[in-house]
Design goal:
Number of helices: 7
Shape: globular
Distance between the termini: 37 Å
Largest sheet: 8 strands, mixed
Strand order of the largest sheet: 3-2-1-4-5-6-7-8
CATH superfamily: NAD(P)-binding Rossmann-like Domain
Strand content: 15-25%
Oligomer: single chain
CATH architecture: 3-Layer(aba) Sandwich
């Protein structure tokens, strides 16, 4: 599956960094947050980050302009995910919030879309068991500082398909990331 559009759910530090990386790598990028203030701050941060990269000679002005043209915003999850092949949620690690989001993803995302989470303190399986096509669910761990760190992890659940891993690996490669694929360990009590 080729990923052309990435929806990033949550415009906090991680979300805005992922949106920057997604647009920089040529993906149509939709950044969503329920807070219009946080969304505006995220867009301002992305613009400032591009300006700093241009000033330091790391990014050409035409590349900045192209990347910025690829970013749109949304104040509603359903609107943000409508056309995305990859949905990356970056909200706080609260199980109820993630369950609600993945229920929305499952109901309103286009057919075949991949659902990714940046969760680090929760099991990906705990909130993706509600998804009909669990093979399209994966964890994506971006390390801080996101714009400068080359490494990232893809976290497979017991259900994640090879196609899902391959698509996310290609997205990460285009973002300039070196990928390690890890398997989620079953939670034991």
């Amino acid at each position: 599956m080729e990923v052309k559009t990435i929806a990033v759910i949550g415009a906090g530090l991680v979300g805005r960094g992922i949106a920057y990386a997604a647009a920089s790598s040529g993906h149509e990028t939709v950044l969503e947050d329920i807070s219009s203030r946080l969304l505006a701050e995220a867009v301002a941060w992305i613009r400032q980050s591009f300006e700093e990269e241009v000033a330091s000679g790391k990014v050409e002005p035409c590349a900045r302009d192209k990347a910025l043209s690829l970013i749109t915003t949304a104040g509603d999850v359903k609107d943000a995910i409508r056309d995305a092949e990859l949905i990356i949620e970056t909200v706080p690690d609260e199980l109820e919030m993630k369950l609600e989001l993945f229920t929305i993803f499952d109901k309103f995302a286009k057919s075949g879309a991949i659902f990714a989470s940046t969760a680090t303190s929760l099991s990906i399986t705990d909130f993706t068991d509600i998804v009909v096509s669990r093979e399209r669910c994966i964890g994506m761990h971006f390390f801080e500082p996101l714009l400068r760190t080359k490494q990232m992890e893809l976290v497979r659940t017991a259900y994640t398909s090879e196609e899902t891993v391959a698509a996310c690996r290609e997205v990460a490669r285009r973002m300039g990331k070196e990928v390690a694929v890890v398997h989620e360990e079953p939670q034991t009590v």
